[in-house]
Amino acid sequence: MPKLLEIKNLTRVFDLGAGEIAALDDVSLSLDAAKIMGVVGESGSGKSTLARIVMALDTPSSGTVHINGKNLFELSARDLRSARCDFQMIFQDPYGSLNPRHTVGRLIAEPLYLEENAPTGAQKRDRIATLLEDVGLKADDMDRFPHEFSGGQRQRIAIARALITKPKLVVADEATSALDLTVQKQILDLILDLRDEHGISVLFITHNIGVVEEICDDVAVLEHGKLVETGPTDAVLNAPSKAYTRRLMNAEPTLEHIGRKAWRAARAQ
Amino acid sequence: MKRIPLNLWLGGLISFLLVGSAILSRFWTPEDPIKMNILNRLKGPGDAGLLGADQIGRDVFSMIMAGGWTSLGIAVTATIVGGSIGTLIGVTAAAKSGAFEKVSGWVNSVLFAFPPILSAILLGALLGPGGLTSIIAIGVFMIPVFTRISRGAAMQIWSRDYIKAAKMSGKGQALITVEHILPNISAQLLVQFAIQTGLGILAEAGLSFLGMGIAPPTPSWGRMLADAQTYIGTAPHLVLAPGIAIALAVLGLNLLGDGLRDLSDPRRKQAS
């Protein structure tokens, strides 16, 4: 059986004028249906570039991405459009990812533009209502505006939008990083529930190893655009083979690391 | 309840009076603004009508009202025309980087470099004086202002994640501009519209002062000023009336623009 997501030898080079930089360097990954894979790395490791390319918002310099057996970068514009129903995205900042001028219903329904025979009228409202309840909001919320909701609720709206075309793959780019810890937990639980109910796969881009431990089946570690380590989460995190992975695990902030004592210690050095 | 800031309140009131009296002048003025009454020649305020009479005995108050319609009509039309073209160029430049953006940038710089009054005189010489000349001459100078503002505001919106979400929904640049960009920059455009209309009134007065504006006998503030120059010693009300009308109109529209800007400024919202 083919993998749901198959990334092969993906390279993306940016020309900075003064020189070239490889944001992604020969990265190969694959993801099965109904699995959650964490992609971790420091800022600048190429995580977001990977997300953009997998979502066909950017084109690779070389390499291929297959989703559901289709090579994204060989599709015609028309075929890419219908292929987009299969993959959607959740963004980091729930304040920047929802147009403040649109109602929740209109926001959630936006990806229906991809469907050839998109539902209209009552049928469309039904679909939005079901989805709102799936993500823990109320059907009546569809006529309200995003500013009436909290950060966590907004992220639920963004998740509902990502799910309306019944995608098989969802990329979550730091989808919980902007939320406080308790809300973060709720959103992670929601993602797990949705995976179990709808069988979607998630590519979870994050810098937070704790989040990976919590929900990811597999993990891929990126450093300067290169894949340094990949495998089942337990195996990688219990016995990290690379120093970089260990450093990421130790870099998780605790009060000890960011408190006044640490600051004094850093200054004394 | 949020307090309405003073500039918005005052600007709104002056603008309302300006627009109200301009519209009213189409239906009613105390006297016919183009009717001569030589017996009232140069009579001061109170002696003949509220604001006196001019050198051929026309009622100044009626002329101010009717002149307001002329000024406002030309300024608003020029701003709508120039603003629409400028906004169209601006949002297109924001959507398409590359050649279009570069060329529109150069054209803008060139337009900015020309002094408006000088170019309006040039245009007036080419087209002949009249309302249309004024509208074109003033409208052309609205284009770069609106291009710059709408491009900057649109570029900010293009970097938002909801634009990525729209792209993920298969939407093209034109549709994204209509659904996401324009609604989110409309507040800034509205503010600019008020301020530019004020400048348009000033420019219209300048043009008709120079004889490049709307043809007589249609009353216009600029020509009233020009005609009154010779009587500045004997009948100062003839200079003061249109002068104050112009100043008040520009002030009112500027205050309105500033007030609207303050109202839509998120930093102010947090403070109150």
Topology of helices and strands:
The complex is a heterodimer of chains A (269) and B (272).
Chain A: E1 5-15, E2 20-31, E3 36-40, H1 47-54, E4 62-67, E5 70-71, H2 77-83, E6 87-90, H3 104-109, H4 121-134, H5 151-163, E7 169-173, H6 181-198, E8 201-206, H7 209-215, E9 218-223, E10 226-232, H8 233-238, H9 243-250, H10 255-258, H11 260-268
Parallel strand pairs in A: 3-8, 3-9, 6-7, 7-8
Antiparallel strand pairs in A: 1-2, 1-4, 4-5, 9-10
Helix pairs in contact in A: 4-5
Chain B: H1 6-24, H2 60-95, H3 99-113, H4 116-127, H5 131-158, H6 161-168, H7 173-209, H8 221-228, H9 237-264, H10 266-271
Give a brief description:
By secondary structure, chain A is an alpha/beta fold.
User: Architecture of chain B, according to CATH?
Assistant: Orthogonal Bundle
CATH level-4 homologous superfamily of chain B = MetI-like
The proportion of residues forming helix of chain B, as a percent range, comes to over 70%
Number of helices of chain A: 11
User: Judging by the overall fold, what is the CATH architecture of chain A?
Assistant: 3-Layer(aba) Sandwich
Q: Topology as H/E string of chain B?
A: HHHHHHHHHH
Q: Tell me the fraction of residues in β-strands of chain B, as a range.
A: under 5%
Largest sheet of chain A: 6 strands, mixed
The level of helicity of chain A is 25-40%
Strands of chain A, total number: 10
C-alpha Rg of chain A (nearest Å): 19 Å
Low-confidence spans of chain B: pLDDT under 50, at least 5 residues?
none
- Count of domains of chain A: 1
Mean of the pLDDT scores of chain A? 88
What's the shape of chain B? elongated
What number is the mean pLDDT of chain B? 86
Which class of chain A in CATH terms? Answer: Alpha Beta
General description of the model:
The complex is a heterodimer of chains A (269) and B (272). The longest helix of chain A is centred in the C-terminal third of the chain and has 18 residues, at 181-198. Chain A has one domain: Rossmann fold (3-Layer(aba) Sandwich). Chain A has helices spanning 47-54, 77-83, 104-109, 121-134, 151-163, 181-198, 209-215, 233-238, 243-250, 255-258, 260-268, and strands spanning 5-15, 20-31, 36-40, 62-67, 70-71, 87-90, 169-173, 201-206, 218-223, 226-232. Chain A has eleven helices and ten strands. The model of chain A has no long low-confidence stretch (mean pLDDT 88). In chain A, a hairpin with a 4-residue loop joins strand 1 and strand 2 (20-31). Chain A has 269 residues and is α/β, with parallel strands linked by helices. The longest helix of chain B has 37 residues, at 173-209. Chain B is mainly alpha-helical and 272 residues long. Chain B has helices at 6-24, 60-95, 99-113, 116-127, 131-158, 161-168, 173-209, 221-228, 237-264, 266-271. Chain B has ten helices and no strands. The mean pLDDT of chain B is 86. Chain B has one domain: Orthogonal Bundle (MetI-like fold). Classes of the chains: A alpha/beta (269), B mainly alpha (272). The interface between A and B is medium-sized, with 22 and 15 residues.
